[in-house]
Amino acid sequence: MATALAPDPAGVVAAARIVAAPDGRGATALPVLEGGGPFALRRVGGRGAEARVALVGAMSAPLGGDRLTLDARVEAGAALAFSTTAATIALPGRTGAPATYDTRIDVAEGAALRWLPEPLISAHGSDVRTTTRVALGAGARLLLREEQVLGRADELPGRLRSRLTIHQAGRPLFDQELRYGPGAPGWDGGAVLGGHRAVGQLVVVHPVFEERPMAARPLGATAAVTPLAGPAVVVSAVARDALELRKVLDSWASELNDIIRAF
């Protein structure tokens, strides 16, 4: 089911919505899966109790002036995996207005979500502001990957402002805002990216970390694992490019999954 686009001379206004719920037979159903404009949501093959959804880009977005919203809810007892089929490229629009891309995620008590989109690429001349707000119920499990690439090959980046907030049982767990590109002080200096052009993080929330918290430590020269004030850890990394960044994050996703399975 597609949602109507609101007319806007500066850009596209579009929304998408996902609801995952138990199907009563030990698996997860998708009673709501709808989107319009650049959002084409597709069911893909599930695994066990987990349903899987892939976002297929139906048009170039976000462009300057676009206002995009993606809502996802995983109800108690359900499990959902979300991915995208390609990177999202932020491009300049017809006006100087920035684009906004807001993601709101609600994972109920005891539910599970793997949120694994492809990178956001900040192309030269673009201006995009992204927000991701995650609300977790008690005992909810989350694997969330966020990756940003600053500029295409041999290209300066556009402006990018990104904020990620995660709350569990109403308490703040993680809150980070990042700014890159023209007008962002010191973004390319040694204290931030140090000349690297890919940055990302992997956040894992799981009850296992209440019993077995991880210690903070560096992971080589450009990555680190940090425990959060709750049953969670975050792996943060910078890299020369998207492939190198993904290699680091995937390696630690595998290690953290081994820790969870072994507990």
From TrEMBL:
A single cellular component GO annotation: cytoplasm
UniProt keyword annotation of Disulfide bond present: no
GO molecular function, one term: nickel cation binding
Entries under InterPro entries matching the protein: UreD
UniProt keyword terms in alphabetical order: Chaperone, Cytoplasm, Nickel insertion
Keyword Chaperone (UniProt): yes
Domain of life: Bacteria
Signal peptide: none
Localization terms from the record: Cytoplasm
Family of the protein in this entry: Belongs to the UreD family.
Subunit (UniProt): UreD, UreF and UreG form a complex that acts as a GTP-hydrolysis-dependent molecular chaperone, activating the urease apoprotein by helping to assemble the nickel containing metallocenter of UreC. The UreE protein probably delivers the nickel.
Function according to Swiss-Prot or TrEMBL: Required for maturation of urease via the functional incorporation of the urease nickel metallocenter.
Name listed for the protein in its UniProt record: Urease accessory protein UreD
